[in-house]
Amino acid sequence: MFLEVRKKFFDFFKERDHAIVPSSSLVPTDPSVLFTTAGMQQFKRYYTGELNAEKDFGLKNAVSIQKCVRTSDIDEVGDETHLTFFEMMGNFSFGGYWKEDAIRWGYEFLTERLHIDPQRIHVSVFEGDANTPKDEESFRIWHNIMGLPKEKIAFGNRADNFWGPTGSEGPCGPTTEIYVDNIEVWNIVFNEYYAVTKNVEPQNHFEYKKLETPGVDTGMGFERLLCMPEGKKSVYETSAFKPLIDMLTQEAPEASTRDIRILADHIRAGVFMIADGITPSNKDAGYVLRRILRKIIGLKMKNDIHTDPFALGAGVISKQYGPLYAEIRSPKSVIHVWQEESEKFGTSIQRGLLEVSRIVEKEKKITGTDAFHLYESFGLPFELLREVVEDDVYSKISKSEFDEAFRKHQKTSRAGAGKKFGGHGLLLDTGELKAGSEEELKRVIRMHTATHLLHRALRKTLEESVQQMGSDITPERLRFDFNFDRRLTNEEIAAIQQDVQEIIQRDLPVYFKEMSKEEAEESGALHFFKEKYPDIVKVYYIGTEGAVVSAEFCNGPHVQNTGEIGTFKIIKQESLGKNTKRIRAIIE
């Protein structure tokens, strides 16, 4: 069923005038999120009207199966349904059809193409609240047109039946969810609004504006859907996982079912993340990957697996998914990244084991807090302590104390992530710029103006087709994403840095003019950023009248003269996938 269900899905919506669109990278262009977490993310600009689906796809509607990573439930992986990496099936409309067709087709695909008994189906719709009204139309369609009895239609609150936006702003709207045997299978989102974050308490407070052209965005987890036609209770029992689970069970016959499932999930996630250009690090997406890979190593040690489960798993995944995704057809480079991380972690584990010996020798026991310190500092999994200390020492380790320390750590990390990725309580938080004090505000303003100069220098040094794909600025550094198909040479980086610094040293004025969007576009001002532009825009200029070196659509804030920026230094370049690169830079 692995390939059959995919084909049925694409064929069904192709017959209904949908263009089949390939999956985008797991690395998003939106700097406010770490990963691509939903199928609609690559279509965000079509809902806002910045891009035109008919022009790009030839149709107003699209269908895709999108690679996704979600980490909010990573500690639940290994149960019946939770996954880190998964595929999201979705059909999308950008003004082509609305609620009745979306609901009808969802119901028809499940009952007519997958032959799911209608008696097993019930649905939910949005009950409405102070911000957005009750979805009476969806209720009417389900009851009066599709014929579902009222007792099979539930009303859900915002947490359950309102979706979006992804990141700090974007399209969003009420949802209707389809359940089979009380398991959520299909989430149909009606993007009626565009939400913009208000920089006020409480957290996640948005202002909702009606979209000019409402759209349909649906999401259905492929692995979860497979459970239905295959008659399985767990995603790990489906044909999506069977080849990998079979291999792991053979290599680790004594491992628990949960450990086998975690290995399968993490190996699959690791392979796809590395294949999309993510590398292990101590920050952002790289930190998530490092945590996943080190969990695999810990389980390998715990279960005394003498072969390399990741390398073997990469081969299995390549054979199964290679025909669908070109980036994993040859897993050699993926395995190389894994092996490098394994060597680094092996060194860290040895240091951790020395620390264990020191603690036991001095204290004659290890507390739960000690165990968490070992995990946080050296990556030493709690389970591994059973293998390296005496039973009487292990029996005194409080798992509840370890879990409490871990929960506190998670709470702190989430708070930090909230500030970094669109949270509140900051003096400035536009999604792109973040500052917590007046001093920090001055630094991010200087760096914001520097991104305009960096954009100019990239286009001048590399090629005019280079476009900004995203930007994220904190008081410590600026991050600038752009389209380019290869790694920059050292000479190119030096030339780009020098070009920026030369403009800074010329102490050129920075100013803006307000004009209509059409006038600004005709002037040649750059406007490649992801945001939706109003009818009247600001264009920021760097240079004197008649000798402008940079002109871009922007809402500011900026310095008044480039000399205020200081010394500009590029500290790192990264690859975010085949055609997207990232530069990190600082100012001094």
Automatic annotation (TrEMBL):
<comment type="similarity">
    <text>Belongs to the class-II aminoacyl-tRNA synthetase family.</text>
</comment>
<dbReference type="Pfam" id="PF01411">
    <property type="entry name" value="tRNA-synt_2c"/>
</dbReference>
<keyword id="KW-0648">Protein biosynthesis</keyword>
<dbReference type="GO" id="GO:0002161">
    <property type="term" value="F:aminoacyl-tRNA deacylase activity"/>
</dbReference>
<keyword id="KW-0820">tRNA-binding</keyword>
<dbReference type="GO" id="GO:0004813">
    <property type="term" value="F:alanine-tRNA ligase activity"/>
</dbReference>
<dbReference type="InterPro" id="IPR018164">
    <property type="entry name" value="Ala-tRNA-synth_IIc_N"/>
</dbReference>
<dbReference type="InterPro" id="IPR018162">
    <property type="entry name" value="Ala-tRNA-ligase_IIc_anticod-bd"/>
</dbReference>
<dbReference type="GO" id="GO:0006419">
    <property type="term" value="P:alanyl-tRNA aminoacylation"/>
</dbReference>
<dbReference type="GO" id="GO:0005524">
    <property type="term" value="F:ATP binding"/>
</dbReference>
<dbReference type="Pfam" id="PF07973">
    <property type="entry name" value="tRNA_SAD"/>
</dbReference>
<keyword id="KW-0694">RNA-binding</keyword>
<keyword id="KW-0030">Aminoacyl-tRNA synthetase</keyword>
<keyword id="KW-0547">Nucleotide-binding</keyword>
<keyword id="KW-0436">Ligase</keyword>
<dbReference type="InterPro" id="IPR018163">
    <property type="entry name" value="Thr/Ala-tRNA-synth_IIc_edit"/>
</dbReference>
<dbReference type="InterPro" id="IPR018165">
    <property type="entry name" value="Ala-tRNA-synth_IIc_core"/>
</dbReference>
<dbReference type="InterPro" id="IPR012947">
    <property type="entry name" value="tRNA_SAD"/>
</dbReference>
<feature type="domain" description="Alanyl-transfer RNA synthetases family profile">
    <location>
        <begin position="1"/>
        <end position="588"/>
    </location>
</feature>
<dbReference type="GO" id="GO:0000049">
    <property type="term" value="F:tRNA binding"/>
</dbReference>
<protein>
    <recommendedName>
        <fullName>alanine--tRNA ligase</fullName>
        <ecNumber>6.1.1.7</ecNumber>
    </recommendedName>
</protein>
<dbReference type="GO" id="GO:0005737">
    <property type="term" value="C:cytoplasm"/>
</dbReference>
<dbReference type="InterPro" id="IPR050058">
    <property type="entry name" value="Ala-tRNA_ligase"/>
</dbReference>
<dbReference type="InterPro" id="IPR002318">
    <property type="entry name" value="Ala-tRNA-lgiase_IIc"/>
</dbReference>
<keyword id="KW-0067">ATP-binding</keyword>
<dbReference type="InterPro" id="IPR045864">
    <property type="entry name" value="aa-tRNA-synth_II/BPL/LPL"/>
</dbReference>
